[in-house]
Design a protein that fits this description.
Elements: H1 14-17, H2 35-53, H3 64-82
Helix pairs in contact: 2-3
């Protein structure tokens, strides 16, 4: 039986030379939010779900105001996380 080096994972293989995608992750995790921010996001998502249920089936629900509020909370958490 012969084996080739194509499928081997060694120190010089592409699997080890690529950067770890999680190393540069600037995303905000749920643990980065304060308790009040978590509760506000949960409440806003619940309101989005309630609006979605009230939809007439054509997708005519405007969630932009609630999404904007969640986005602002995320930006504040990211600013606090990165110290800016």
């Amino acid at each position: 039986m012969t084996t080739t080096a194509e499928g081997a994972v060694g120190p010089d293989s592409p699997a080890h030379t690529q950067e770890d995608p999680m190393a540069k992750n600037d995303d905000v995790r749920f643990s980065d939010f304060t308790t009040v921010e978590k509760l506000r996001v949960i409440g806003l998502v619940a309101r989005m779900a309630k609006r979605g249920l009230a939809d007439n089936g054509y997708g005519n629900v405007d969630l932009s105001d609630l999404q904007g509020r969640v986005k602002r909370i995320e930006e504040n958490a990211a600013r606090r996380k990165h110290g800016k």
